[in-house]
Amino acid sequence: MSVWGWEQLLFIVAVTAVAAPLLGRYLAATFRGAGATGTSVSGNSVSENRAPGDRVFLPVERLVYRSLGVDPDSSWSWRAYALAVLALGLVGTLLLYAILRLQGVLPGNPTHAPGMSPLLSFNTAISFITGTNWQAYEGETQASYLTDTVGLVVAQFIAAGVGLAVALAVVRGIAGKARTVGNFWVDFTRSLVRVFVPLSIIGALVMVSQGTVQNLSGFRTATTLAGGTQKIPGGLVASMESIKLLGTNGGSYYGVGGAHPFENPTGFTNMFDLLFVIVLPFAIIFMFGRLIGRPRQGYALVAVMAIIFVGHTVVSMQAELHGNHLLPASVSQAASGVSPGGNMEGKETRFGPEGSALMTVGTMGTTAGATDSALDSYTPVGGTGAFVAILLGEISPGGDGGGLYSILVLALLSVFVAGLMVGRTPEFLGKKIRAPQMKLVLSYVLTIPVTVLILGSTSLVIAAGTSSILNPGLHGLTEVTYAFASVANNNGSAFAGLAANTTWYDTTLGLAMLIGRFAPIVLSLAIAGSLAGARVHARTRATLDTSGPTFAAFLLGVIIIVGGLIYFPMLILGPIGERIIG
Amino acid sequence: MRSALFGRHLVASIVMLLGLTVVLGFGYPVVVTGLSQLFFHKQANGSLIYRDGKLVGSELLGQEFTDSKGHPLPQYFQPRPSAAGAGYDGSSSGATNLGPSNPLLIGFVAGVNTVGLNGQPSAANPFATKADPACVPVSPQGTPVSSPAPGQKYAMTAGGSYVCDPNTVPERALAYRQFNGLAANAPVPVDAVTASGSGLDPDISVQNALDQAPRVARARHLPVPQVIALVHRYTQGREWGFLGEPTVDVLELNLALDGTP
């Protein structure tokens, strides 16, 4: 890596290291009392707990609770909580489906986008409600302004709020003393009112100040210097961009996402966008440590996530800077003060190979999967960095909330394995982990790989699957396996050469997104429910310390070994094989 | 009991969704648009550039500098190759998405992706020409074919060599050297022969601009140092000294050239 690459990476790490703990402190103060069963201060109701900004936010929230007919001081079982999540998902999907089908006749359509086909609407509605933001449609021409702002942006807020809410419920179940896990409507409302909406507005304004567009002009026609014409797009880009990133959604206004100069205009916005994705998921882990009254537990999980983040990002940055060795030698790929060098196919000059890889692969460990360059054109090693980040299950640092409950499940798996090794009943946060929990943990760990491998391999043997492939050879195989891994982990990024708007892919990818979102949510809530109210044992000298470096290293090992065992054959047939043959 | 609970949640979900649609679907973008238009009017509208009151483009979007037949105009600095529509189409941003070993990107490289006349893998490239050993032939209609069908015939030039797909990196490098009067094996900056991620990249690298400067100077009858000085004046350094890469905005540079007497 070049000195500029290291400086940009260091900048990201340093800003995150300062901002995430501060934001985590705010989050902990905000959610400590929410939903009657705070975890460290159990038994306090919303009205008894003070949180920053109550004077502004509380009246808004009370109004919401009254309109919904919800008692904010009630706390529910995990089943009731999961049912509420599913109900909101169902209603949200249906409304979005209707908007997509009808956008051609609805107002707010200056670009004259026709209504989407039933299958494309099915795929897109699920895609945005689940926070995957897989985009089988073309942003500029196939989505109206109304679809973007009213349909997709609302779905992006919902996905973000649901993720954080579920994480809060899981924390209460795993660490709290009560038998209930909280109140979904309270968690969801508070996360929108106190986190996602205010931060989105601020982020959008920062982006606009740098050149991200925010207007209602439709296409303007310019007469170019050479005498031709150029259509200049408009749109409500910044307001979508900020919740796309903050909510770890990833769905862009324009088809090419963060590569578009109207979305990500400068080297500064490129890094700002990356920070806007990763700071909040890291902050949620810090929040967890504070909520359970053991900040060190949060640090241990953050350390594991940060190591994985830096790992896959550095590998890709290095590979992309090194360039494509198959280009003729007389094409200069050496980086210097006057040329970015490296593998510039599918990359923007202003970001260069390292800035592109840092932003694109940096967001791959979250469920955002926001890109500023064409992943399909990455070198095999550079693409592997992105692929591995997804295959490890989106835990570096994961989605908003999703990252937390994913790594908690993996921590439970780790204490179980460690318990077997030393011959003691495994314990996490003082609660015994037994067979019922482990059955749920294993279902959680296996659901997504089974979905990815079955649907992915089926697509590789039937014509409906292979006819969509753009690139020949092993690279084409990666286009397919990557698509399923990406959507099942709610990432949504693509090796975009794959022609995904077909009957086969719209259907199967839609199903994979549904499973990949709601199975983990229900299973992690079930785990939380099974631990809620369990006896908390006092720590003794024989208790396995889950917040020290030993456990962190062990957890890291479990994550890599589990992911490796499941996916290594797929990687061999894909990017690793491609690199060896090339 | 549970279905009654689900029913209650459904009702609450509908109310919540209607509220969110109003507040976040309409209110949120209105607030952001209002503040943006108030405080950052130029940026929010696309950093548009007007000349003599007429809209000529945007600082942030690249555009083509070609004649009506699609040939590059020598008096203008040329942007990077583009995969947006037919080239720099603002309504159709896009990348090529070609993989790093795809013949349509790198050509037929011997021992990596070459195929024989029968379409089966072969050690050498039967379509190699003297100028371009990696030549990927195009069909008589000019359609690129990465894996030729058996018996398919490709158009040959008068000299007996194949017509090569002009959009591979080796072919673009040949064309770049010829257009700019560079030596046969002169290094070509990588950004000049690869397509960007958006197809709308407004920038080229400084090296790319410097390599084009003598040609532009010749076409405009300007001294080369004057054009090079202009390139340096329109070079945008890394933000904060280390974020991103140094760039030259092609449209701004060409506008400045047009304004040079």
Describe the structure.
- The complex is a heterodimer of chains A (582) and B (261).
- Chain A has 582 residues and is mainly alpha-helical.
- In chain A, 62% of the residues lie in helices and 2% in strands.
- Chain A is built from 18 helices and 5 strands.
- Chain A has helices spanning 3-31, 54-68, 78-102, 118-129, 139-142, 145-175, 184-210, 237-246, 267-291, 295-322, 352-362, 380-391, 402-422, 435-461, 463-466, 474-488, 503-531, 549-581, and strands spanning 220-223, 229-232, 331-332, 427-428, 431-432.
- Chain A has a two-stranded antiparallel sheet. Chain A has a two-stranded antiparallel ribbon with strand order 4-5.
- Chain B has 261 residues and is mostly helical.
- Chain B folds into 3 domains: 2-44; 46-95 and 195-261, no CATH class; 97-167, no CATH class.
- Helix content of chain B is 35%, strand content 7%.
- Chain B has helices at residues 2-39, 41-44, 103-106, 169-180, 206-220, 224-233, 250-258, and strands at 48-51, 54-58, 188-189, 203-204, 235-236, 247-249.
- In chain B, a hairpin with a 2-residue loop joins strand 1 and strand 2.
- Strand 3 (331-332) of chain A pairs parallel with strand 3 of chain B, so a sheet runs across the interface.
Number of domains of chain A: 1
Oligomer classification: heterodimer
Q: What Rg of chain A is obtained from the alpha carbons, in whole angstroms?
A: 23 Å
**DSSP strand content of chain A:** under 5%
SSE arrangement of chain B, N to C: HHEEHHEEHHEEH
